[in-house]
Design a protein that fits this description.
Elements (H helix, E strand, L loop, with lengths): L2 E6 L6 H7 L1 E4 L2 E4 L2 E4 L6 H10 L5 E3 L3 H12 L4 E6 L7 H10 L7 E5 L4 H16 L4 H11 L3 E6 L4 H6 L16 E7 L2 E8 L2 H13 L4 E8 L3 H12 L7 E5 L2 H7 L4 E7 L2
Parallel strand pairs: 1-2, 1-6, 6-7, 11-12
Antiparallel strand pairs: 3-4, 3-5, 8-9, 8-13, 9-10, 11-13
């Protein structure tokens, strides 16, 4: 039984890895004024962050259209027995809804299951990669769906921001708005809980913030997959990955760059850790 795996670009899965694992990625869009780009298709991460930091217009993200999903589903249905489509939290984007609409437009296609991961970026990526690996190993549809749904409460995402400026401008701050007015001169630490951004802690400076991320990681048992993501600081990400390796032994730490979907809201200097516990 061949299972097709679909996700969206907010998962921040590098193109080479997605290709290797047979993952079909539907890009989100980012708009700077009148200019609209497809994430990592018509704008690179480097170009995006340059425009974000130095440009006069703050961008907004746009979910893929149902037709974007229809095109991917149609192609994949021709070579698959079923499709599993795993996406960014529905509390952060309408991407999940676009996927569901596309599914309803393809009643005669192979079975399509759309999963709201309740996550974004590398945490979503961990769940998608687990499902893709299971599909490559020949697991059946029910097994992969069970693994995907069981992985959601076993996955965590938390990170350090350099500033709340971009989160406020982006508007999708959820319960993190409770931090506003109390963070002058300190670094906010956020987490994703129940599909939305929530305040976790605050640190006096960046170094103490990174220490707090590591302390939080130490409290999580049975980690079997882990990744570090950064917006503009690859050296910091590499250093953090090395520190993580002394805590979570025998588990490779992937380093990825945060794309436009999360980058719009967190800005430069952000560092995030995503991990998945044993099912």
């Amino acid at each position: 039984m061949k299972i097709g795996i679909v996700t969206d670009s907010s998962a921040d899965i590098p193109a080479e890895l997605a290709h290797k694992m047979g993952i079909n990625v539907v890009p989100l869009y980012v708009r700077f004024g009148d200019d609209i780009f497809r994430e990592r298709v018509t704008i690179t991460d480097e170009q995006f962050y340059d425009k974000l930091i130095n440009g006069p217009i703050h961008p907004v993200t746009i979910q893929p259209s149902p037709q974007d999903f229809v095109e991917v589903y149609k192609k994949l249905a021709a070579e698959s027995d079923a499709i599993i489509s795993i996406h960014i939290s529905s509390k952060l984007s309408g991407t999940d809804n676009s996927a569901l609409l596309a599914k309803s437009m393809l009643e005669n296609a192979c079975p399509i299951t759309v999963i709201d991961s309740q996550f974004i970026s590398v945490s979503l990526g961990l769940i998608v990669l687990m499902a893709a690996e299971a599909a490559q190993k020949g697991k059946d549809l029910d097994e992969i769906l069970a693994m995907g749904n069981n992985a959601i409460p076993k996955t965590q995402l938390f990170g350090l921001l350099d500033t709340l400026k971009y989160l406020l401008m982006g508007g999708r701050i959820g319960k993190a708005k409770a931090l506003v007015g109390s963070l002058l001169g300190v670094k906010p630490i956020l987490a994703l809980k129940g599909g939305e951004v929530v305040p976790s802690a605050q640190a006096r400076n960046r170094a103490k913030g990174i220490d707090r991320l590591l302390d939080d990681l130490k409290k999580i048992p049975d980690v079997v997959d882990i990744a570090v993501a950064h917006s503009t600081t690859p050296d910091d990400a590499q250093k953090l990955a090395s520190q993580i390796s002394t805590i979570v032994k025998d588990v490779p730490v992937r380093i990825v760059r945060l794309g436009t979907t999360l980058g719009v809201h967190i800005g430069p200097g952000a560092l995030f850790i995503a991990c998945r516990q044993k099912l």
